[in-house]
Write a structure and sequence with these properties.
- By secondary structure, the chain is an alpha/beta fold.
- Among the domains are: 136 residues, 3-Layer(aba) Sandwich (Rossmann fold), CATH 3.40.50; 148 residues, Rossmann fold (3-Layer(aba) Sandwich).
- Helices cover 42% and strands 17% of the residues.
- The chain contains 14 helices and twelve strands.
- The strands form two sheets. It has a seven-stranded mixed β-sheet, sandwiched between helices.
- α3 links the parallel β3 and β4.
- α6 crosses α13.
- It is globular and about 55 Å long.
- The two termini are 27 Å apart.
Length: 443
């Protein structure tokens, strides 16, 4: 080790700003502060990488952050104030990329963590992007369509200094969808005086969206799940699966797993779930959910809570809801052989250690749910060249890239004798650090 490099681990210098400086919604349980968890994962991976201390320090912090407070006229005529964020973690490998979420639980710490994970995810999948994330503190279910559109257009205007097809490209996330992306694209385009489809991804096909984008994240989960079953020598036709978070990601992953021969024994949504040891048809469950608004009450099933679903005796547990679902409090109760992180950060660092010690294989989030950003990249490329591919080609490209990502992670894990998560982070961080050194430090 020279004086230019050192192994830079968990004892690194303190953050120059408070990890919990957010004014509202600050998480009080240290284990559930997602930004602290993201930093802990980063520090652990650094113990296996030789990079300059200054480079490591650079990657600990967001490149830039924007916090906005803006008014929206409600249907009643009242004016309500909302808080929003957009964070760029790194732009060294290209424009930043990351979703926008609408949730009453959004915090600046959460957005920071999600932006950091997006940086690792894009680097791991070898996409020419850095990581970003955005959010608005709001419950979208409490707004009318007109109020939702007004909020989206005003938020877009507020963050327009950050976004652009060559600088930062938003996408859907929890609480947002293709229609919201359409409003963002239209608002940005109106300010420019011409249409700019490539400013967002995950938008409707009619205005430049990509075929296969809606299912991409769930499809990527299914692809990595198939790889993990093969790695562990488990026949898909004999595998039982439980899915927490039966939304866009979980429902698609469940359907594709079912098509591969796996038995779906439990699914859950925000209000609870259902269990049937004889198996569920995820298509029928999804139809029921769309009609009733939840999966609870699906016939010929036992009602279960989200917490109970996590501890069901099954081969595969897909965690596709929100972060911090498997913690030190319940990690010892997990019975699955494989945990697939369809959500971002669903397993805390402490729980990760417990699962690893128990021999449970975790498909890390920056690999498992990378299908969404991968097809977002393909959508962006199609928009830039104004040439679009059929869905079969999109899905084949996604399969190839997910397979490549899984193989590279497992090769790195074997080389360094570390978990899949550490391996994924090692690959991602090394690629970004190399890019920083190749580009040089300006001026």
């Amino acid at each position: 080790m020279t004086d230019q490099t050192k192994e830079y681990g968990a004892s690194g210098p303190s953050c120059p700003f408070s990890i919990s400086e957010e004014l509202t919604n600050t998480r009080r349980d240290p284990e559930e502060n997602v930004y602290a968890n993201a930093l802990a994962q980063f520090d652990k991976a650094l113990q296996h990488i030789r990079i300059k201390e200054g480079v490591a320090e650079t990657l600990r912090y967001p490149k830039r952050e924007l916090s906005v407070t803006f008014p929206v006229v409600m249907d009643s005529g009242d004016i309500k104030i909302f808080r929003g964020y957009r964070v760029h973690h790194s732009a060294v490998r290209g424009p930043t990329k990351g979703g926008i979420r609408y949730s009453p639980d959004v915090t600046l710490d959460e957005v920071r963590a999600l932006a950091m994970w997006m940086t690792w995810k894009c680097a791991l999948m070898d996409l020419p992007y850095g990581g970003a994330k955005g959010g608005v503190v709001v419950d979208p279910k409490q707004l009318s369509m007109r109020e939702l559109e007004n909020l989206t257009r005003r938020y877009t205007t507020e963050i327009s200094i950050m976004i652009g097809p060559d600088s930062d490209i938003p996408a859907p996330d929890m609480g947002t969808n293709s229609q919201i992306m359409a409003w963002i694209m239209d608002t940005y385009s109106m300010h420019r005086g011409f249409s700019v489809p490539a400013v967002v991804t995950g938008k409707p096909v009619e205005i430049g969206g990509s075929l296969g984008r809606t299912e991409a994240t769930g499809r990527g989960v299914a692809f990595t799940l198939a790889e993990a079953l093969q790695l562990k020598g488990i026949n898909p036709s004999q595998a039982t699966v439980a899915v927490q978070g039966f939304g866009n990601v979980g429902s698609v992953a469940a359907r594709l797993a079912h098509e591969m021969g796996m038995k779906i024994v439990a699914v859950s949504g925000s209000t609870g779930g259902v269990y049937n040891d004889q198996g569920l048809d995820p298509v029928l469950v999804n139809n029921f959910r769309q009609q009733s608004g939840c999966v609870s009450g699906f016939p010929r099933c036992d009602e279960i809570t989200n917490a109970e679903l996590l501890t069901i005796d099954c081969d595969v547990l897909v965690v596709a809801a929100v972060e911090n679902q498997i913690t030190a409090r319940n990690a010892d109760l997990i019975k699955a052989k494989i945990v697939a992180e369809g959500a971002n950060g669903p397993v805390t660092p402490v729980a990760d250690e417990i699962l690893n010690d128990r021999g449970i294989f975790v498909i890390p989030d920056i690999l498992c749910n990378a299908g969404g950003v991968t097809v977002s990249y393909l959508e962006w490329v199609q928009d830039l060249q104004s040439f679009f591919w059929p869905v079969e080609e999109i899905n084949n490209k996604l399969r190839t890239l997910m397979h490549k990502g899984f193989e590279s992670v497992m090769a790195c894990a074997e080389k360094h004798r570390v978990s899949a998560r550490e391996a994924a982070l090692i690959l991602a961080i090394r690629r970004i650090a190399d890019a920083i050194m190749i580009r040089g430090i300006y001026p």
